[in-house]
Every structure is written in structure tokens, then in C-alpha cells.
Write a structure and sequence with these properties.
11-stranded mixed beta sheet; alpha/beta; UDP-N-acetylmuramoyl-L-alanine:D-glutamate ligase; about 15% strand
Length: about 850
């Protein structure tokens, strides 16, 4: 079964109405062998804050060393995001395998039986996937209520009700007490129910669940939370006090309510792993403790929950979907200073529109939109509810497209103004998807390439067969909303080009493959900019993509950009590797002594290295981690000694404390093989205004034998790096200072590493310089080389990387690889000249 068939089957289940109860999902799980019995589960219910709390619990448990499954909804990108293993979304191939297994049973059920809903089947899929991945713990966000929710098929070892407010009254009840009663059913058998609820809801929970573990700002709570306010546009501080322990932490989520969610997460995680490590002294990192609770909370990024994209103007996305949530958004927004506010508002039809609008902050303009979902509220209905509650001077208008309304609002906003998009996570999904959308340049050299590309985009086989022969010239792939995709396809065909659109009938983003000459793309862009079609945002993205198609790279010895800030602006730069370690895979111990390290650095620069990369910790498979203090002891003297060479000096470290010491010693560039897993790294890069290399990795040091399930390794790595780059930007690092590294060999097979090398130009879609680190890696065993000694193969890889448009190559043997870069550059320059002739 292909993914598009599986996805269409799953999304087709949305037509079935909710029938509260767990009997049906329990029957399906029995058919699957009851996978939920193979791991521990944590269940998270509540009216607001469930997703954030679930993410924080998952992050703490992972920081403790557990393999953790996370099930949340809805997704902000693709369906696989709802089911994650250690942060990685479920692969399309795994979803196809699941649907292939359960579809016959679902179809053959008696007509008298209630059909399973989309949420029930996806919940079963999550539990099935968690068993396959052998997770230690699964963290499950309750969809609605608790007593009759599909996630209640598990027997949790810990659970919570974050809070209770009026919601889904047609199903859960008309009062807070009734709703609290249904949510209390998630209480575990052998542990108290954790909650931050108050008032009548708290009393009802106590009555139904019995033993409670309470969290809140009140002094009589079992865990007392003290919100300390936001420390930046990206983080807030919180103090959490329990029985015999207390600690201070930072969380990447804003608002006092998120501090309370953090307290709930700590209480839940403590029930799973114990509270002993909460206040244990850990390795020092810039004055902050380093326990699993500290690390987990600070790494718990959760998009779409008061997510600040920029500060000038202030741009915020929040999925608030009821009056209480909208009120907390207004409260958090009040901590920022701004002049005029524009709101883009889109909600679901079954929500309290007037209550939500009344709770939102005062605004100069509210643009009301209709989300691209059947459950979406009609824009005119929402506008009337908004007009009845806002100030008379507020302009209320409607728009047909959430992404375009969001783009227009940002365009109108001055540097001192603010833009808020809110009303539902579906609205956030549409706006965020457009904001982060990539236009990916794709090389198609044969029919086989075209067939692969169209299959990966889930284009129907009949259409793909017709399109494959005509895919020439410029080829770009992207993701669009269904209506946008139809318009783009119509206009490109009218312009003379070709367009393939995914056959997935989800009502959400679909894959689109565009092919044509430059003239045909220009005609498409002109049409999209027109009022008749009205998709100027997509037109601008395509124009930027085509305009930025790379010229042939100059070699390291030739001139390029006048007065470049960094050497990779002047051609393919060569970064020389200087390992001051006793155990690195290729040259461990060779330059461990200071005198040897300095001599090697000088030799590399003399041979043409543009950057010297100093590393003090091995990340080879199975390498033993070292302490921060030991890593600083190794790298700082070397950096101090080589800081005056005629090249940039980089520090290869995953720890911000080491990076800071290296910068103080004279380093110019940060190189993080974990892709900013240490949250302080991105803030350090922003504060010091230095480039930072962000590498895609699963684990560093590499875990021997580790297997990661990719659908398309290039697309999957691109998606992950896109979020890493966005994190850096939101912290204040300009995109031109972010260098991306696909991480060849880190959680990738040799075949996948060669795929990344072959398609390296596709990473230009991120708008960042691209680094390729391939030197002497085990991937070359596939080409006849020997791991750690693949000398000739490395040089060949360098030539390919430079030819494909890599901005930096990271290598051990500088003279030979400089020559490879120059040959590749001369070849491309010659091809360019012959094209002119």
C-alpha cells in the first residue's frame, strides 16, 4: 500500500461522528495484540495546556535517558507529527504498513457496529508504533474529556487534568463540574491524579478521583509554582517547590500559565522517574544546574503556543481555542511593548466566538478568516461575533486566505507594531506552514529521477506517468494548501509548464512539483501576483527561489564576492579539522599536544584552509562523553595559540559553556553537531554575532548500530533543519549566520549519506550556507574505501560536494581537498562559459 492510499483512508474516517466510549478502540487494539500493554503510559487531560504539558513531560523523560513516544493532536505540519519517537515523527512508510494491516478488519466490521473515527484509529496507530519502537514510556494527550476518550484504552501509571473550563458542552456536559467529572476518569489506579485545577473543578476532581497531587501558585499546593516572568521573547523563568526539593528553571514557553504547566509536568515526570534527581547537583553549565528536569524543561520547544517569530515587528502565533485561552494570550501579550496591534482570527464552528473575541486584546484591526477545514467557522459569522464585542474604532474585515491575511498583516505592521494570529491550532497550522514553506530546487536528469520525485510527492501513478517525460528545465517542489495547489497547477499549465499535485485527499497541505522554463515560471509568477488569482506570497517565494539559483562556485584560490564577510561567500570554503582528542576516529591523539596542534593549524592554513575547526570531544560511534571542564581544558589553549592565523577559527562543541570559553579565547565560529540541542548555544551565537554551524544528528556521540526510519532522507533532514534554523532566528541569529550541515553518517546509513551528498543543492532552499562533512567516514566503505582511511574517496566526495554547490567542506587533508574544490570550480566555470558560446 502506498502512503497516499493509507492517508486517504485515514482522513476519510473524519466523516464519522464522535461516539464517546472506548469499546471500539479496544476491539481494534485487541486485533493488534494489545500493544498498549508493552510500555508504561502517561495520560494528559485538561481544557488548556495539554499539548505543552505533554511536550515538557516527554522532554524530561528523554533527558533522563528514556525512549519516549509522544502522541498529540492536531498536527501543525503533517500527520506523522502526531506520533513521535524521541522527537522524530512517524514515517509515511510505517503509516502505510499500519493501514494495510488494519484496513481489512475495519472494512469487514458488522454494519451494526459503530465505525471507528479518525481519532480512534490514529490513537491505535500511535500505540502500535510505540510498541514497534520499543518505547519505555508513552505520553498521550487526551483528545476530549477523558472517560470516553480513545486514549483511555491505556492503563496509565501517571496522569493529570491540567485545568477545567467550559468546552465541548454538547458532549462533555453543560457545567464545569460535569466536565471535570469526565476528565477525572483518567486518574491512575496506583498514583494520585495530578492537577492544577481550582474552585468547583478541583472539588469535583477530589470527589471522583480521590487522591490528588495539586499544583499551582497557592501555598497549600503539593507543588508550588512561582512564575518569574519572561527573560526574553523566547523564554520565561519559573521556580518550582516540592516536598523537600526546589529548583529554578527556564522554559521556552511564555505566560504564567505555562509556568503552571511546567509544574504539572515536573509532578508527572517525578511520578515516573522519581524526584530524587530534581535537586541533585549536576554538571555546571553557565551557572545553571544540569538535571534531567532542568534540561528537559528548557528543551521543550512547542510550536504554535505563543510562538514569537520576530520582535520588530512583534509577530506571534497562538492556537488559543476558547475564551480562557484567549484571555491568557492577551495577558502574555501585555508583557510586550508595542504600538498598534493587528489580529488575524480564525476559529472552529463549535466554539464560543463572542467569548473568544471579547477576551482578545484590543486591536486596531481584526482580520477574520475561515480555516481550510470542514469544522471551520464561516468568516462572516465570525466577523459578526467579533464586531459585537470589539471597540467601535477597531476595523473588522474578512479575508479568504489565512496565509495571505497573515502575510498582509505583517506587511502593514511597522517595526514597533504587533501581529497576533490566533483562534485555533488549525489556523496556526495554515499560517505557520506558509511562513516556513520551502521552495526546494530539484535536479531531474532522467525519467527515473522524475518518477522518483513524483512518487515521493504522492502524485497518482497515472498522472506521474504522463508528467515524467516532460520534467525539464527548472524543477521546484513545495507544499501548499489544496486550494492554492489547484490554482498554481492551473496557472502553470496555462503558462505552458507542468505540475504534479499529491493525491492525498486530506484537506490539508499537499505536495506540489512544478516544472518549466524560466519564461513559463515568470508567467506563473505574474499570474499569481495578479488580483484575478491573488496569491502574491507564493509568487514572491518562487521569484526569490529562481533568483537565488546558484552561480558556479569559485574555487578557494579565485576571486568571487568583493570583500566577503565570510570565506564561503567567496566560493566553496575549506574547513580543516583539528582534533585535539586522544580518541577521534581518524586522527585521534595525533594533535593532542599543543605544539603539534599549532603546527598542524599553521600547515592547514598554508595549504589553503579558510577555517580551522578545533574539536576537543570525539563524536565517533561509541565514544565516551567527557566533562565540560575537560573539553575546555583541551580546546582553549589551542584556540588561544592559533587565533592569529590567517583563517577563521571554529570550535567544534555541543556545549554552550565550551563554546563561550572558546569565543573568549579567540574563536570566530561555533560548530554544533547536535543542532542546538543545548538551548544556550543559539542565544550565545546571537549575543556574540558569530556564525553557527547547525548539524542534523540523531545522537552525538553516535550510537553504534542506531537505525532511523526515513521516508526520504533529504526531505526529512530538510524539515528538521528548517525548525533548527527557525529556532536560531527566533533567538536573534540572522539567517546568513546559520550554516547548515546535513550530518552525513550521523544516524544515516551509507546509502542515505550518499543520497544527501548527491542532492546537496536542495538544501539551498533554507537560504543558508551549506556545509558537507564527509571526511574519511564509514560511508565510503560502499565505494570500496576503509572507514577512517578513505583518503581518495574523501577527495572525490569533496569534488562532488563542490560541484553540487556546497559552501563549505570539512576535511582532514587540506591540500588535496583544496585542489578538488578548485578543479570542481574550474569545471563548472568552463561549463558556464561553453553555455554562453
Amino acid at each position: 500500500m502506498d502512503y497516499h492510499e493509507a492517508a486517504n483512508f485515514l482522513f476519510g474516517l473524519r466523516r464519522f461522528a464522535i461516539d464517546p466510549g472506548t469499546d471500539s478502540v479496544m476491539e481494534l487494539l485487541a486485533q493488534l495484540g494489545n500493544p498498549q500493554e508493552s510500555f508504561d503510559s502517561v495520560q494528559i487531560a485538561g481544557s488548556n495546556g495539554k499539548g505543552s504539558t505533554a511536550r515538557m513531560v516527554e522532554s524530561i523523560l528523554r533527558a533522563e535517558g528514556n525512549t519516549v513516544g509522544l502522541y498529540t493532536s492536531p498536527h501543525l505540519g503533517d500527520l506523522g507529527e502526531e506520533v513521535r519517537i524521541d522527537g522524530r515523527p512517524m514515517a509515511d512508510a510505517a503509516m502505510a504498513e499500519f493501514v494495510s494491516e488494519v484496513r481489512p478488519w475495519l472494512i469487514d466490521r458488522s454494519p451494526a457496529d459503530d465505525p471507528l473515527t479518525f481519532f480512534e484509529v490514529v490513537t491505535a496507530m500511535a500505540l502500535w508504533q510505540f510498541e514497534r519502537a520499543d518505547v519505555d514510556v508513552a505520553v498521550l494527550e487526551v483528545g476530549m474529556g477523558g472517560e470516553y476518550d480513545a486514549t483511555s484504552a491505556v492503563d496509565p501509571i501517571a496522569s493529570c487534568v491540567t485545568n477545567v473550563s467550559l468546552e465541548h458542552t454538547d458532549v462533555l456536559g453543560d457545567t464545569v463540574e460535569e466536565i471535570a467529572r469526565t476528565k477525572a476518569a483518567v486518574a491512575p489506579v496506583d498514583a494520585p491524579l495530578v492537577t492544577a485545577a481550582s474552585g468547583d473543578a478541583l472539588e469535583t476532581l477530589r470527589e471522583v478521583a480521590g487522591e490528588l497531587f495539586t499544583v499551582g501558585v497557592e501555598a497549600d499546593r503539593d507543588v508550588v509554582v512561582r512564575p518569574e516572568g519572561r527573560v526574553s521573547s523566547q523564554e520565561s523563568a519559573v521556580s518550582i517547590v516540592g516536598d523537600g526539593w526546589e529548583f529554578e528553571a527556564r522554559i521556552p514557553l511564555l505566560g504564567d500559565y505555562q509556568a503552571t504547566n511546567a509544574g504539572v509536568a515536573v509532578a508527572l515526570a517525578g511520578q515516573v522517574i522519581g524526584f530524587d534527581s530534581v535537586a541533585e547537583p549536576g554538571e555546571s553549565d553557565g551557572g545553571r544546574s544540569d538535571t534531567p528536569f532542568h534540561r528537559g524543561l528548557r528543551r521543550a520547544n512547542w510550536p504554535g503556543r505563543f510562538e514569537v517569530f520576530s520582535e520588530s515587528p512583534l509577530v506571534v502565533l497562538d492556537g488559543a481555542h476558547n475564551p480562557d485561552a484567549c484571555a491568557t494570550v492577551a495577558e502574555t501579550l501585555s508583557t510586550f511593548a508595542y504600538d498598534d496591534l493587528e489580529i488575524v482570527f480564525a476559529a472552529m464552528h463549535d466554539k464560543d466566538h463572542a467569548g473568544m473575541a471579547a477576551a482578545l486584546p484590543d486591536a486596531a484591526r481584526v482580520t477574520v478568516c475561515e480555516a481550510d477545514l470542514e469544522r471551520a467557522a464561516d468568516a462572516d459569522v465570525l466577523a459578526r461575533a467579533t464586531e459585537a464585542t470589539v471597540d467601535r474604532e477597531t476595523v473588522v474585515e474578512t479575508a479568504s486566505s489565512i496565509p495571505q491575511a497573515f502575510a498582509d498583516a505583517r506587511e502593514r505592521a511597522g517595526d514597533d507594531d504587533a501581529v497576533l494570529l490566533t483562534g485555533s491550532l488549525s489556523a496556526v497550522r495554515e499560517a505557520r506552514s506558509a511562513y516556513t514553506r520551502l521552495q526546494i530546487p530539484t535536479r531531474v536528469e532522467s525519467r527515473t529521477d522524475a518518477e522518483r520525485l513524483l512518487a515521493d510527492a504522492d502524485v497518482a501513478p497515472s498522472a506521474a506517468d504522463r508528467l515524467a517525460d516532460g520534467m525539464t528545465h527548472h524543477v521546484v517542489r513545495t507544499r501548499l494548501e489544496p486550494g492554492e495547489a489547484r490554482t498554481v497547477r492551473t496557472e502553470l499549465l496555462r503558462a505552458g509548464g507542468e505540475c504534479g499535485v499529491s493525491d492525498v485527499e486530506s484537506g490539508e497541505r499537499v505536495s506540489v512539483v512544478l516544472s518549466g522554463t524560466r519564461l513559463e515560471f515568470d508567467r506563473l509568477i505574474d499570474a499569481l501576483e495578479s488580483h484575478r488569482v491573488g496569491l502574491p506570497t507564493i509568487a514572491a517565494e518562487l521569484r526569490r527561489r529562481l533568483k537565488s539559483e546558484p552561480e558556479p562556485k569559485s574555487g578557494t584560490q579565485t576571486s568571487g564576492v568583493d570583500d566577503p564577510t565570510y570565506p564561503w561567500e567567496n566560493g566553496t570554503a575549506v574547513m580543516g579539522i583539528l582534533n585535539v582528542t586522544p580518541d577521534s576516529f581518524h586522527d585521534g591523539g595525533e594533535y593532542y599536544d599543543l605544539e603539534d596542534a599549532v603546527a598542524q593549524a599553521e600547515a592547514m592554513v598554508e595549504a589553503g584552509a579558510d577555517v580551522v575547526d578545533v574539536g576537543g570531544e570525539s563524536t565517533r560511534p561509541g565514544a565516551e562523553p567527557i566533562s565540560t571542564e575537560e573539553e575546555i581544558r583541551r580546546v582553549v589553549p589551542v584556540i588561544e595559540a592559533v587565533s592569529e592565523v590567517d583563517a577563521l577559527v571554529s570550535v567544534d562543541s555541543r556545549r554552550a559553556a565550551v563554546a563561550e570559553a572558546a569565543l573568549d579565547a579567540g574563536a570566530d565560529v561555533l560548530n554544533d553537531v547536535t543542532g542546538l540541542q543545548d538551548p544556550e548555544m543559539r542565544f550565545l551565537a546571537a549575543d556574540r554575532d558569530v556564525p553557527v554551524v547547525v548539524m542534523h544528528s540523531v545522537d552525538a556521540p553516535v550510537v553504534p548500530g542506531q537505525h532511523v526510519e526515513y521516508d526520504d532522507v533529504v526531505d526529512d533532514v530538510l524539515s528538521d533543519l528548517r525548525e533548527r534554523v527557525l529556532l536560531a532566528e527566533k533567538a536573534g541569529v540572522p539567517r546568513e549566520n546559520v550554516v547548515i550541515d546535513p550530518g552525513l553518517g550521523f544516524g544515516k546509513s551509507p546509502e542515505e549519506s550518499f543520497e544527501l551528498l548527491d542532492r546537496i543543492e536542495e538544501f539551498q532552499a533554507l537560504g543558508c550556507p551549506v556545509l558537507v562533512g564527509h571526511s574519511h567516514k564509514s560511508m565510503f566503505e560502499r565505494a570500496g574505501g576503509e572507514a577512517g582511511e578513505a583518503y581518495a574517496e574523501t577527495i572525490a566526495g569533496t569534488a562532488i560536494a563542490a560541484d553540487r554547490g556546497a559552501d563549505v567542506v570539512r576535511v582532514h587533508d587540506v591540500p588535496e581537498n583544496v585542489a578538488a574544490v578548485n578543479v570542481a570550480a574550474a569545471t563548472r566555470e568552463g561549463t558556464k562559459q561553453s553555455d554562453r558560446w
